[in-house]
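User: Round two. Same drill as before: sequence, then structure, for each protein.

Assistant: Same drill it is. First protein:
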Amino acid sequence: MMCKKRFLFMLAIFSFQLLFAQRETASQPNIVLIIADDIGWGDIGCYGNKDVRTPNIDALGSAGLVFKNMYLTTSSCSPSRSSIITGRYPHNTGAPELHDPLPARQIMFPEILRKAGYYTALSGKNHMGPAVKKAFDMISSGKGPGAEEDWVSILQNRPENKPFFMWFASHDAHRDWQFDERGITHDPEKLKVPPMLYDGPETRKDLAAYYHEISRLDYYVGKVVEELKHQGILENTYIIFMSDNGSPFPRNKVRLYDSGIKSPFIMIGPGINIAENSSLFSAIDIAPTMLDIAGIATTDKRIQGKSFFGVLQGREQMIRDFVFAEHNWHVFQGYERMVRYKDWVYIRNGFPERQNLAGESTKMFPAGKELWEAYERGLTNAAQEDVFLKPRKPEELYNLSGDTFQFTNVAEVGSNQKILAYLRKVLDEWIVETGDSKPQNPTPDRDDVEGKRLPGAWKKREKPGERNEADTINRSGPILEKDLR
């Protein structure tokens, strides 16, 4: 009899512990990460764009924290996403060039969340290869022209007894353009044309179509928020809105100027009561921050980023003095490296003898074609002629306090030689510590300036960092000034 009573008592204790554990798990915050495709940091209403209509994203900005200086590690779709999911620089992921699949040996923060009890789902653009399957309970290619149409149903059909992480990745606003009733029609004649583009009718139509796709994504952002409210879980959910690289126009996407390498980055969630932060952050910092939000301690040294959870809580203002970024092969051969420090941006070009091109700066798309035609007729100005420079300067230095678009290279100004020498040292330190290397046999151009495939066999060659086995190196390079030797 005593044994039976003891068994029933122990069963009751176990049931209580199990119930408590389930409630404790359920109280862990949910996370929804919305990644836009090819949307520049300044092309959102709350970042100052008065032409595009993004009321739902703007509402997130009003309710949460708007990051003014979130830097991506590269302005190229697949390597940027692989960098975000691993918390590693592109040359350290083993997937630094466009279309490189992420090696399965690399760490992925959703995989850690999944092992810790989170339900994890990816919907929309993957572009990281098959290795990410182990990081997600469910993967969908998405529905609709922007791949956002199943986001709400995924939220509705998730397991109810688990916290969740959603990687919602739209195809908006990636070319080619697709139109539907979910996006807003923008009048080309009323738009302000960015100064690096030629102000012509085809470029204006191109911009209007781009803004249409941004507004469609905004519609589905609103639907996600609406569903979270309907389920009564918005207050326990972090929502992040960001982009993978700059806009698909000349001198933006692929490039290391702010128009290419900065991301809009907005967060709302429990405990976030700061409206804006202008300190420097890197996309590699997202992975450790997501784990901190979930209360998951990890000592995995493969994550090179630094958590900014303290910034979200108001305990810290900044976490780093430097951000670094890289430009590798993306249709055209490329090797550039960048460091930002305070208001200074230093860029080093490994192939100064070449034009700095991307598919979006060729004649393949309307804005690029119109720019080339205007240049050939002598109708462009210096701000619009960057993509035609050949040779280029091997070093570029910009002071963002008075040069928002980085149009004026001040590397040769005598009074700037001290800061130039300092940033050379900082970048050298990062290159050495992270095992970066300029390819001796780099991947060649795949297309020509017409946007057509070059004749003959084409294949990828040596990758940045490959010579140093950088994909096995975990050092992050300097984050704070005290890290410099």
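Second protein:
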Amino acid sequence: MKAWDKELRELSEAAGLSLGDREVALCCRHLELVFQWNRRMNLTRVREEEAVAKHLLDSLIPLPVLPPEGRVLDVGSGAGFPGVPLAVCRPRCRVTLLDASRKKTSFLKVAAAELGLSQVRVVHGRLEDFAAGVLEESSFESFQLITFRAVNPDPELMGLLARLATAGRGCIAYWAGARSGARDAKEAARGEALGLERLEDFHYDLPADLGRRTLIRWRRK
């Protein structure tokens, strides 16, 4: 298995991130687990040589513009990005990883245990059921940060997330990939109707010319 430690150190420093030995080791171990399990199930299509940039750096670069502590919900966690790297680098956050795939939540439970992330809980189920409180693991607490990636932010989804975000300061963060993040009047009106204020978009570049990224954020009023 490829050793990613040196690459992660160099790329994170170039991106202005300060990662300690623990953070580097755990993030790289997470990647190793992803590719080990990927032989048996479809966790990622990203190639190993691009995994540090497309998975780890893409998850970590936006951290400075996200709440530093509190309850976090990662929706559609899949292989655990950005939820697991966030939990590694923000140990004061209590992170819930939610996914509708039983196989993926099985992986996430193994990964969290392997990495010693005691502040992480893994929930199998649909967001609709989690928000309605019908899952055994549903939480009636609100979240200071809700993250999602590779999930379409349609009005129904945003309505559910708005209900789960902490009033007055809950942040919803969407890893929009290569999307421009352009605003339009309809999008703004939908956000207003849900009690969400669109914050300034955060743009960043992945290393090795792997593309420009946009993080779209809302705050619950």
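The radius of gyration is 17 Å.

User: Perfect.
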